[in-house]
Amino acid sequence: INAEYMGATLNAPGGSLSIGHPFSATGVRLLLTAANRLKREGGRFAVVAACADGGLGHGCLIERYE
Questions:
Q1: Which of 16, 18, 23, 41 has the fewest CB atoms within 10 Å, measured from its CB?
Q2: Pick from 1, 66, 60: which is nearest to 31 by CA?
Q3: How many whole angstroms separate alpha carbon 20 and alpha carbon 40?
Q4: CB 30: neighbour CB atoms within 10 A?
Q5: Percent of residues in the chain assigned helix, strand, coil, to nearest 5
Q6: Residues 53/42, Cβ–Cβ less than 8 Å
Q7: How many Å apart are CA 54 and CA 20, to the nearest integer?
Q8: Tens digit of pLDDT for each residue in 13-55?
Q9: What are phi and psi of 49, to 5 degrees?
Q10: Sign of CA dihedral 41, 49, 66, 25
Q11: Cα→Cα distances 9→1, 19, 30, 57, Å
Q12: Long-range CB contacts (< 8 A, 24+ apart) of 16-24?
């Protein structure tokens, strides 16, 4: 696998467990991490997804604008 390609597509900071998994605040933590990365890296879109107890889940598309 090409390392340059992997760097452009992988989530280097990781998901909810690697950035901290505070009880009842995982969604907020993921959204703020994605928003901060968009600002820091000059990105436009981010997708956040998380699973929940009992097979539930949610997803969110975030757009940065100025």
A1: 23
A2: 60
A3: 20
A4: 21
A5: 45, 20, 35
A6: no
A7: 21
A8: 666 666 666 677 778 888 888 999 899 989 999 998 887 777 8
A9: -140, 145
A10: negative
A11: 12, 18, 18, 22
A12: 16/50
Q: Residue 42 and residue 66: Cα distance in Å, rounded?
A: 11
**pTM passes above 0.85:** no
Do residues 31 and 25 lie in contact, with contact meaning Cβ atoms separated by under 8 Å?
A: no
Structural contact between residues 31 and 60, judged by C-beta atoms closer than 8 angstroms: yes
Residues 61 and 47: beta-carbon distance below 8 Å? yes
**Whether 20 contacts 29, CB under 8 Å:** yes
